[in-house]
Amino acid sequence: MHIDRLTAPELRVLGCLIEKRFVTPAQYPLSLNSLRLAANQSTGRNPVVDYDTHTVQAAAQRLCQYRLARLASGQSSRTVKYRHLAAETLELDDPALALMAVLMLRGPQTPGELKGRSERLVPQPSLAAVQTSLDELIARGYVRRLPRQPGQKEARFSELLGGAGDDGGAELASVALSESAASPSVPPASPSVPPASPSEPVAFPYAATASVDRAPVAGPMPGPATADADGLEARVSQLEDELKALRSEFAELREALGG
């Protein structure tokens, strides 16, 4: 079964199982409630989510189908518990597994960020060792190096178990936009529309709307539009009368002045 396209809840649940195995071994394996609380933590998570119990349980069950997790409840236990199988299935040592967990839980990061954040799970000997682990993860198709954005000093790395990923895709799109802005662009040609001849009626897109059956109307239906038209006609007639009166007064004034 393919495991290279995990959903966001599956990535979060798997990352939590790996993290808690290292950080809180006394509370491991995790119950469903503990797993939900770990997935919805407000610290050490990007993005912060609010998954309900059903979402977390469904994700954990799918991870079991992918052989990335399994049920770990004892025979006398009534609580469902889960443990991860990522180390065995993905064939990763603890330092690489810790890097994968941090990438699943916090998204793309630089080697320095990965070293600092993964050391609470597993000690990392050096930054060079982290880079070596990242190179091995890249070679195995679990991680990729993201294009460096303008102004960034270090490259960032993203996990690939969830495919391209939203964060990685956003960074790639941002780089593409910056590159296109630096190069001259040619605006797309607008489709030519021949001018309508005077003998042809102008067609509007609204004329293509579906027709609606209406009852025949014997005469004009009174309404706001009719009232407005009547008022406008009366106003125009009044203005015409006033203009005629002004012209008559002007003519009389000229005759009085001998013009």
State the assembly state of the protein chains: single chain
CATH topology type of the domain at 1-91: Arc Repressor Mutant, subunit A
Order of strands in the sheet with the most strands? 1-3-2
Q: In sequence order, what are the helices and strands, one letter per element?
A: HEHHEEHHHHEEHH
Mean pLDDT, all residues: 78
Figure out the total of helices: 9
Kindly report the name of the CATH homologous superfamily of the domain at 1-91. Answer: Winged helix-like DNA-binding domain superfamily/Winged helix DNA-binding domain
What is the tally of beta strands? 5
How much of the polypeptide forms β-strand, as a percent range? 5-15%
The coarse overall form would be: elongated
Task: Describe it.
The structure is a single chain. The chain has 259 residues and is mostly helical. Among the domains are: 1-91, Arc Repressor Mutant, subunit A (Orthogonal Bundle), CATH 1.10.10; 100-180, Orthogonal Bundle (Arc Repressor Mutant, subunit A), CATH 1.10.10. Helix content is 49%, strand content 6%. The longest helix is centred in the last third of the chain and has 33 residues, at 224-256. The model is unreliable at 165-222 (pLDDT under 50).
Helix/strand layout:
Elements: H1 8-23, E1 30-31, H2 32-39, H3 53-65, E2 69-71, E3 81-84, H4 86-90, H5 94-106, H6 111-118, H7 127-139, E4 143-145, E5 157-159, H8 166-182, H9 224-256
Antiparallel strand pairs: 1-3, 2-3, 4-5
Helix pairs in contact: 1-2, 1-3, 1-5, 5-6, 6-7
